[in-house]
Automatic annotation (TrEMBL):
GO molecular function: hydroxypyruvate isomerase activity
Recorded family membership: Belongs to the hyi family.
Domain spans labelled Xylose isomerase-like TIM barrel: 23-258
Any single GO BP term: glyoxylate metabolic process
Matching Pfam families: AP_endonuc_2 (PF01261)
InterPro entries, alphabetized: HPT_OtnI_isomerases, HyI-like, Sugar_Epim/Isomerase, Xyl_isomerase-like_sf, Xyl_isomerase-like_TIM-brl
Keywords: Isomerase, Pyruvate
Name assigned to this protein: Hydroxypyruvate isomerase
Active site: E143, E242
Phylogenetic lineage: Bacteria, Pseudomonadati, Pseudomonadota, Betaproteobacteria, Burkholderiales
Length: 272
């Protein structure tokens, strides 16, 4: 049975961030993820996790200067030290929260002529960041993000991500495969699942309906088919629910309740 984590940066925006932990637990989630937890004290987040018997399964490293629209620094020449300092901050949070994996964002490279230099920089920075994470017993995630939502983002394709893994060649570097981004960038989602999940390259997944990024029972992707494929491949990692509720978080969870209800009684979420 697949494991779903509530993305608390997008879900439960009806309440303040720290209160979202309790709301997620109330709806049956056992795992949660978020983008950037750094506006809150790590100790307070840990208390919410403990109070509600939740596991924080993913955080992002700081993206650079968010107010300036930066989306990561790993591929940007001259920003490696800043990127690695952010990774160290993420490690500090991860160790307090019990987070096993950290997403390190690649950054925006708008000039096509700069992509070759950005590629060299990206490989070096990811390798250095992965070494830091390895020392803490953590995994590093790289995520292809579609160029419609994030123009110029350096890492956009699934094959590109697989090539980065091959070139970096470190055991704790994995793909964070977001099926929404995969569909928006290139489609052929089930084949990419086979190529990446089937090869053991995926450390975390995320889902949303495409193209509007609402609940996964809306839009172009037929998630029951994709969930069955993941089950057949034996995927046992977390799947982050990183979508924008169309009306309200709780009102839009029918897709998840149907999945849980269809599982054999011994495997249902509340009995697992």
């Amino acid at each position: 049975m697949l494991k779903f984590a509530a993305n608390l940066s997008l879900l439960y925006n009806e309440v303040p961030f720290l209160d979202r932990y309790g709301e997620a637990a109330r709806d049956g989630f056992r795992g949660v993820e978020c983008l950037f937890p750094y506006e809150e004290e790590a100790g307070e987040i840990r208390r919410r996790l403990q109070d509600h018997d939740l596991q924080q399964v993913l955080i992002n490293a700081p993206p650079g200067v968010a107010a300036a629209g930066e989306k990561g620094l790993a591929s940007l020449p001259g920003r490696q030290t800043e990127c690695l300092d952010g990774v160290k901050k993420a490690i500090d949070y991860a160790l307090i929260l019990g987070v096993p994996r950290i997403h390190v964002m690649a950054g925006i490279v708008r000039d096509p002529a700069s992509r070759a230099a950005a590629h060299v920089q990206y490989l070096e920075t990811i390798a250095r960041a992965a070494t830091l994470l390895q020392g803490a017993g953590l995994d590093l995630m790289i995520e292809p993000i579609n160029p419609v939502d994030m123009p110029g983002y350096f890492l956009s394709g699934q094959a590109q991500a697989r090539e980065v893994l091959a070139q970096v060649n470190m055991d704790n570097v994995r793909i964070q495969m977001d099926l929404y981004h995969c569909q928006r960038t290139e489609g052929d989602v089930s084949r990419h699942i086979q190529s990446s999940v089937g090869a053991g390259l995926v450390g975390h997944m995320q889902i949303a309906g495409a193209p509007d990024r609402h609940e996964p029972d809306t839009g172009e992707l037929h998630y029951p088919y994709l969930f069955a494929q993941l089950e057949a491949l034996g995927y046992d990692g977390w799947i982050g629910c990183e979508y924008r509720p169309a009306q309200g978080t709780r009102e839009g969870l029918g897709w998840l309740k149907r999945y849980w209800d269809a599982a054999p009684r011994a495997m249902q979420r509340n009995d697992a």
